[in-house]
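Subject: complex prediction, re-run

Hi both,

The earlier run crashed halfway through, so I resubmitted it with identical inputs.
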Amino acid sequence: MKAGAMKLDWTRNETLVALVILGFCTAAAISDPGFLSLATLTDLLRGGIVLGIFAVAALIVLISGGIDVSFTAVAAFTMYVTAMILNAALPWLPWWAALAFGMAVGACLGAVNGVLIAFFGLPTLIVTLGTMSIFRGTMLTFIGQKQITTLPPGMRDFGRMMLLRGENADGSFYSLHGAFVVTVLVVMLTWTILHRTMLGRQIFAIGGSEESARRIGINVRKVQFFVYIYVGALAGLAGIIHASMARVANPFDLVGLELSVIAAVVLGGARLAGGHGTLTGTILGVALIVLVRNSLIVLGIPSTWQSVTIGCLILLGTGLPAWQAKRAAARAA
Amino acid sequence: MPDALVTLDGVTKTYSGITALDGVSLSIAAGEAVCLAGENGSGKSTLIKILAGVEQADSGRIAFAGQTQGPLNPRLSAAAGIKVIFQDFSLFPNLTVAENIAFSAEIGAGARLYRRARIRALATRTLERIGVDIPLNVAVETLSVAHKQLVAICRALATEARLIIMDEPTTALTEREVRVLLDIIRRLKADGVAVLFVSHKLAEVLEVCEHVVVLRNGQKVAEGPASDFDAASLTRHMTGRDVAGAPPAPLPADAPVLMQVDGLNKDGACTDISFTLHAGEVLGISGLLGSGRTALAKALFGLVAPDRGSITLNGKRVATGNPLAAAEAGIGYVPEDRLTEGLFLTQSILQNIAIGRLDAHGNGAGVLDLPALLGEARDWLTRLSVKTANPDAPVRSLSGGNQQRVVLARWMARSPRVLILNGPSVGVDVGSKSEIHGIIAGLAAQGLGVIVISDDLPEVLATCHRVLVMKAGRITEEFDARAVSETELAHRLAS
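This time it finished cleanly. Structure:
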């Protein structure tokens, strides 16, 4: 039946988020015809670069049945320490090596989470709350609090890399940063891991039932350890990209963003209980949050309303599908 | 005679001084189905764990195909083709049927990449082998219990299973689903796969079994060909005594009407239900799964809001669709699935009883008189003889029978006038079952009205005065429990 195939699945968060995005864009376009422009698009894409990588990292942890709130601290620590080390000892490193260096630092910090969670079996929220404070505190106490305004040459080069740039009719500039490609690659790599490798399926399996996973011979520790290292590496990467794009490594940046990121992922349909989540949903969730952050002003809504709007979207976006599912279950019973 | 697939010889296991298994010998041949019967605590679970390699025996010999084994571990047992299907099935609710079936096989094969086509082919093949049709792409969490069990069986078969151990395979199944399961077991046996049923509710699987072994207190107390056993003799061996199913004494003719239900209706679930319940009466409501019996139970207690109809208790209307009002009026409800609906699993045994009496022990300012509250709860533990060393232990640590007593105690502490028991002895061992039946009789003797909802016909006949039969949401017939036989009732239910 054709109508059936075309029917929207209301119990999926993706459907709802996509519709809200459409509605939001329509409203913005009506109140400001200039909204539908290349400049808006590149602004949104730019806003989604760092947030997107963070969201992918948060997604993979949620799927495995855990929660990580330390990734922003890992990112801040990594960008600051990397900028410092590269300036002091390795100024000749090219941009790609600087990114790799950041991923390595992030992976090491992620491994700390991994050891505590996978090998000592501690609860993920407690561990990452603890390491978030430790990473941030260590950086501010022992390493430094001053902004690094002269970035190492590799990061500076990367900061200037543009995918496209141009001038609008009104004389303003628009540009899309090269780092967008990195985010796309991260999404593709993560999709491949999650859906085309047994490792990825084991992450889903552990999120579904850790005990069952153990019983059929999945090495739960190994998989969890991988998850936290991978998340650390992604957070490190995001940190370097953030500093390169901002052209400054500010140790006070990024921290505080973690809950919005997790909110975006949950908005996209990932479940806090684990085992469920899609990259499509995650991207839509990030898109919506970036849209709200960048464009509320276009609709004439004061920017202080941002968090109220995001909060309402979270309640609506996660509450409505849950309510629909409950009603469907009640009908079936 | 060829070597048996699995041989246990004088296997003994003790846990901190308590003997869980005491010199048990057992052998299982290829293509044979064996019943391992025993109550909770008889050593069944220990035996499963030893075969699965999860626990090591202290002494005794274990041989696979005649080869004496050293210390076992889960990997060795699995490699020998011994697969355990746990009572909870250990599936992944979020993954598809195909993935669940193929997961262990793929892991065992050391696959690194997710090979969708291979996984689907393996799943299709395995489902065909047991002759069932379950869509491959649906998430396991959406399946019925019976289908989940079939998926678990397929998963075991997908990895070269020689012996499938099924822990409590029939507890959650309806009679029809048990039939399907038995057909599948026959197919497996024809394929040379051996099956070990481990349960305390085995009468229904006897017909496919060759051999029966009964454990009690860690010892083998009976063994023989399945044809030598029937439900009664199994029970006798498991409990060590006769558990008689005597029907209750007839109700006095002048027993006053306690509850009156008129035209209770919930579209799609139950239709125009009317009946009366007398003081001191035990009323059975029986029907197959999907007959609306559980919907009716929930509607009586206000968990499902009916579209029409009324409930009158002692001449007063009870607001429908409101469990608080029902409880206030003196109706109690013991749900079918006590684990998810009846208990606070991680909280203590005492708390679980006391929670129903918070109102009674609070003063005007809402401050609890904790000693009185817990004292009363403790009192109920003794009255219902809940066996526990430590009333502060989480309630999940109790056996099924004792858990059910905790749920009963919580309601009895509130002195209700009508108690609705949905599946009072699901997942409860035989000994506890007859004690629960004793409690039911005791409640009725005190003048309570009791409604027993169950598809366990011997239970219905042993506890109830009257039986109502439900089909497709309607009450179709009414019997005097003394005047109807089990076979006739079974026939009425199914026809």
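The interface with chain A takes residues 74-75, 78, 86, 90-95, 99, 103-104, 106-108, 111-114, 155, 268-269, 295 of chain B (CB under 8 Å).

- K.
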